[in-house]
Recover the amino acids of this structure.
């Protein structure tokens, strides 16, 4: 099936920017390349400020002066290796404005310098901090959700399963939920544009400590018991 023209344009852009296969890069070089792809957002938001969530750097986006906004705690994508507050700044601006609610973007620690479960721990702790400090953020602690894209979706699903705090919903944007890489979709999309099987394996190998981690629900939410997935 051919890609939609807009999707094809994105794939062509990444192909033109990538002079070396991503999976052959050192993590710092991959981060530099990823950062070079970013285009700063000019979308205006009522308030944007950096927040220290108990030692975890975060960024708060508020679309209005209301003091009882709902809150989306957002975890960025990037295969647990790349990405930061700036890489997903435009996404968070749009989420705040379009939803009419606040967004707290979490700058969790990256692999391979900090392997699993460092990212999970940071996300869980930031979520707990947001709940405990809701009034200082101008949000309603009974209306908190988690979300993220790709690796961020993985982290959102994992902390939701842990029931760190009561949540209204999960916003999971193409989440990676199985670190074993044995699902049929891995083979079906092995040579897909942008994210190939070999690139995904590069990310997983940097994030996981060993193969035993693949069966941990904090790494692979899909292995959770059905009773936890309801």
């Amino acid at each position: 099936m051919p890609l939609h023209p807009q999707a094809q344009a994105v794939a062509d852009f990444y192909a033109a920017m990538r002079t070396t296969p991503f999976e052959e890069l050192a993590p710092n070089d991959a981060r530099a390349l990823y950062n070079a792809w970013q285009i700063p957002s000019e979308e205006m938001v009522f308030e944007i400020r950096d927040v220290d969530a108990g030692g975890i750097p975060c960024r708060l986006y508020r679309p209005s002066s209301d003091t009882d906004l709902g809150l989306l705690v957002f975890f960025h994508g990037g295969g647990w290796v790349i990405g930061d507050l700036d890489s997903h700044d435009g996404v968070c601006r749009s989420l705040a404005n379009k939803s009419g609610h606040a967004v707290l973007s979490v700058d969790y620690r990256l692999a391979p310098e900090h392997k699993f479960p460092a990212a999970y721990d940071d996300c869980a702790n930031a979520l707990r901090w947001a709940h405990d400090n809701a009034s200082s953020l101008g949000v309603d602690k009974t209306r908190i959700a988690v979300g993220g894209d790709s690796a961020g979706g993985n982290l959102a699903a994992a902390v939701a399963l842990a029931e760190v705090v009561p949540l209204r919903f999960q916003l999971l944007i193409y989440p990676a939920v199985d670190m074993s890489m044995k699902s049929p979709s891995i083979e079906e999309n092995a040579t897909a544009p942008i994210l190939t099987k070999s690139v995904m394996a590069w990310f997983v190998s940097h994030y996981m400590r060993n193969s035993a981690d693949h069966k941990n629900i904090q790494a692979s939410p899909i292995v959770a018991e059905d009773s936890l997935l309801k």
Q: What stands out?
A: The first helix runs from residue 5 to 17. The chain has one domain: 5-36+45-209. The chain has a mean pLDDT of 95.
